[in-house]
Amino acid sequence: MLGVSAGLVRHGGPVWRSLGVTPLSAVLLGEGIWALNTIADTTSPM
To answer: pTM score, two decimals?
Structure first.
């Protein structure tokens, strides 16, 4: 799915590009939230 999205972003028309960016952005946002939660769980506040 991500490969198709990346292909649309690179070679699609304007509407397809905007639709292709959505899953890529969602994955990056999800990975960032997961990483921040993992760091917060494994690091002491003091």
So the answer is: 0.74
pLDDT of residue 17: 94
- Of 1, 10, 5, nearest to 21 by C-alpha is 5
d(Cα 20, Cα 30) in Å, to the nearest integer?
Answer: 16
- Domains of the chain: total: 1
DSSP codes joined into one string, 1-46: -HHHHHHHHHHS-HHHHHHHHHHHHHHHHHHHHHHHHHHHHHS---
Which domain, by its residues, includes 25?
A: 2-42
Tokens of 18: 């905007």
CA distance 43 to 41: 6
